[in-house]
Amino acid sequence: MNKNILKLIMVFFAIVAFNACSEDDEIQFTAQTPPDQISFTNDFLGEYLLSEQTAQNNAERFTWESPDFGIPTPITYQLDGSADFEFTAPELLAETSNLQASITVAQLLSLAEAAGLDNDEATENPDTGDLYFRVRALIGSENAENSPETLSEVTTLTVTLIATGGPEPLPVFPNLYFVGNATAADWNNDNNNFPLVRDPENENVFTYTGKFLGGDTNEFKLIENRGAWQPQWGLQDGSFETSEDLGGDPGPFQITDGEGYYTLEVDTENKISSLVAFDEASSEAYASIGIIGFGTTGSDEGWSQDINMTQSTFDPHVWYISEIELFDGEVKFRAEDDWDVANWGSNTEFSGFGSLGGPNIPSSAGTYEVWFNDLTGNYMLISLQ
């Protein structure tokens, strides 16, 4: 009998000990609110000019660093805008898992209206004022109540609504330029750096076909603005990345297959890039290429005389004009002052993929930097306003 009781006691203690060990083996993570607030990392303009004509354009791209909640977890970011500093009626501008979000002119116009701003001279409402922005970081992707979160300080942007009745402002587009010793500019970020051609149907997609220097030490990156190293784009562990997301500079592209012609395509939204060889051997060589058309003079006289472009000494298939005044109208690119030699055009303004004998290119009044590539017919008209 005593032996049976002893066995029962031993079994009881074994079960208790097993449960205690099992409970100890269950590791529980507790997320904590970060001690430091999340903060914006991009620079802001002193003033943002807004108009209905540019409503669909991107006005600003907000960037921030990832906060540390103390555990590995997905984070959802919410970018809020407000007409007042207290965020009495905040407007959710973007929700994303990325460390950046772009807002459009239309979103700023909506906030400006809520702030009582307008550009109507018949009213006493101001046309200039401040709008307010913050970013919130929340644990997970379901936005559960009582989830740990951190909130940035409020950032103020000054906006001005352009008065109606004046000339329509030209749209503002993103650009990408080459820098690096595989390119014409070398490692100088303000040396007439060649631009990539922006897809007229998708402002996040760019392409370029041309000459690159090759070798183990010949490299290049992409910058968004000449004269500024940030933001810059390159390769990081084989992926196309930007310094604004990495928090540091990405690595360069390398031309490992030797000097020659290549086609580069990049997508800044989906972070995709490709670099493939291009056979230039059978391409035509031209003594001169000019821009011609009503848009060069504002009259039909523009169709009678080319404005010659400068041929690149680095790549003879690349042509440019550093500054030219254009008028409302149409233009084309023409080789050697002769329609029968070659001419290129397309139906998209500011950038496009021209074809031989293609349609006239629409032009709007303004001062531009113009680039043309006779290998592809691609062109860029970059506003200098």
TrEMBL record:
Residues 1-22 form the signal peptide. Pfam families: SusE (PF14292). Residues 24-135 form the SusE outer membrane protein domain. The keyword S-adenosyl-L-methionine does not apply. GO terms for cellular component: outer membrane. Keywords: Signal. GO terms for molecular function: starch binding. InterPro entries: SusE (IPR025970). The keyword Signal applies. This is Outer membrane associated with starch utilization, SusE family. It comes from Psychroflexus torquis (strain ATCC 700755 / CIP 106069 / ACAM 623).
